[in-house]
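We store sequence, tokenised fold; for instance:
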Amino acid sequence: MQQSKYEEVITANISLHSKMADDYSTCEPHFRPENVEKVERKLSTLFREVNARKLLDLGCGTGFIINIAKKYVQHIDGVDVTQAMLHKVDLSGNAVINLHNSDTGSFPAVPGTYDIVTGYSFLHHLYDIKPTLKTAFTALKDGGKLYCDLDPNYYYWESIHQLDRNGSYDTIVKREIEMVTYKDEDIEKNFGVSKDTFNNAEFGKNIAGGFKEENLIADLKAAGFREVQILYYWFLGQASLINDTWGTKEERIKYADVMDSVLQRSLPVSRNLYKYMGFVATK
């Protein structure tokens, strides 16, 4: 691992997210109610499986996971390199919440302390995920679970990058070209952050091109995890379907769930149609 590049990516993240902190919870789509509900269903199941009381949230940002988890667990530690993001975390509720301004790859977690470790929409912000996976493994009790999600699926990103920005495509595809390939232009315009800084801050997405299932499994097994379940989320056009104007929102979500069910059954053939991936790894 190139230590200088590792530090450069951390610095880029602090620069980007210090400027985005005030707007992060409103401009990032994973804060939309339908996604919050999806993640809460997943988390509540994991919490029951391990009878969770203590959670470590790596790359906690403004508290997306913390806001959900504090209804289910008694103690939460959140870790993030950007202090401006930590200032936005809501500490209310019955859970004891401690925040730590630290790099997740070097965070000194007490071994065997946590039932669950999470990293939501986070791993792609790292130059090298291996130190963070080791932090998670060390922190977990035997039988504990690491849940990470909403990181870019390499096979989807590769498909979009091959398309012509000026090509004759449906608006669904055109929107993805802009969001996947040219998001740095939008960030530079709206937040005054240079393209280089933004791309370094999302190194695993914009420079490495996302994550491959086989590589993630290998890295998790190398860190010591004994079991890995790969998850795929948000197929091409799902957001457009849910946010369309026909019928009720509940009806549109139902149709999206039906389509998702078919595509999930079609894996791995349908793998490149899913924008994001995640996993649950068991110690």
Summary: The chain has a mean pLDDT of 94. The two ends are 25 Å apart (CA to CA). The CA atoms of residues 185 and 195 lie 7 Å apart. Residues 3-20 form the longest helix (18 residues).
